[in-house]
Specification:
By secondary structure, this protein is an alpha/beta fold. The protein has nine helices and five strands, in the order H-E-H-E-H-E-H-E-H-E-H-H-H-H. Helix 4 links the parallel strand 3 (90-94) and strand 4 (122-126). The longest helix has 18 residues, at 192-209. The termini are far apart.
């Protein structure tokens, strides 16, 4: 007898699940999780969180902001930091769309770090590179930034790759059986971005064919010259 029909994935604009229970803790990110859980007992008023694209930095930052009530702020000439940093405030500074602060923002950044210390406030800085590597021209700011604690999310292991692939597909509203995941994980690049791209490619192909994601479909995606996650 045939089993019940399988549900096909639909392009319904699903949003990524960003709740704390949706974050996958493994050896590559457990140190970052531990640092955020350590708040407010940080050795400095700000912590810099870095990691590869798609590593979950935004997810972790969203969890921390939800727990602390942190408000987003971007130091700059047009930002009133005296108002944005009340006593005891928590701030979230997202620099993922740029390598480092703009040159005309260096003075505001220095002012921000002073305010954080004076007002016993905290900031989580999410960045693409450690603050000590930013090409800062203001010596006092460079010294302050270099002294900030920094934690990096490392490249994923196979356990996390498998869990991330399932999560990305679930975020897209797609269903996948364990044999497909077991087939894919040893064959894809060990990077967060590759997993995200592969999930999107699998979902697009399944939608176009109006079929579930199978090992055969996965094999086809990996064999395409420009397929996401295809071996180089």
């Amino acid at each position: 007898m045939r089993g019940p029909p399988r549900q096909l994935p639909l392009a319904l604009g699903f949003q990524p699940a960003l709740a704390a229970e949706d974050f996958l803790v493994t050896p590559c990110n457990e140190l970052a999780v531990a640092w955020l859980n350590r708040w407010p007992d940080w050795p400095a008023p700000a912590l810099v969180l870095t990691g590869p694209a798609g590593a979950g930095k935004s997810h972790l930052a969203a969890i921390w902001a939800g727990r602390t009530g942190a408000k987003p702020v971007m130091p700059g000439a047009k930002v009133d930091l005296d108002r944005a940093v009340p006593p005891g405030a928590c701030l979230l500074i997202d620099l993922q769309t740029m390598l480092h602060p703009e040159p005309d923002a260096e003075a505001p950044w220095f002012h921000l770090l002073n305010l954080l210390k004076e007002r016993r406030a905290h900031a989580l800085i999410v960045a693409r590179e450690p603050a000590a590597r930013w090409p800062v021209r203001l010596p006092d700011l460079a010294s302050r930034l270099a002294a900030l604690p920094q934690v990096d999310i490392l490249a994923p292991d196979e356990t996390l790759l498998a869990a991330l692939l399932v999560k990305h597909l679930a975020d897209l509203g797609a269903l996948v059986d364990p044999p497909v995941i077991r087939y894919l994980v040893p064959r894809i690049e060990r990077s967060f971005l590759a997993v995200s791209d592969l999930a999107k490619a699998l979902n697009r192909a399944a939608l176009a064919a109006q079929k579930p994601i199978t090992v055969a479909l996965a094999r086809t995606i990996l064999s395409e010259p420009d397929g996401a996650g295809a071996p180089e």
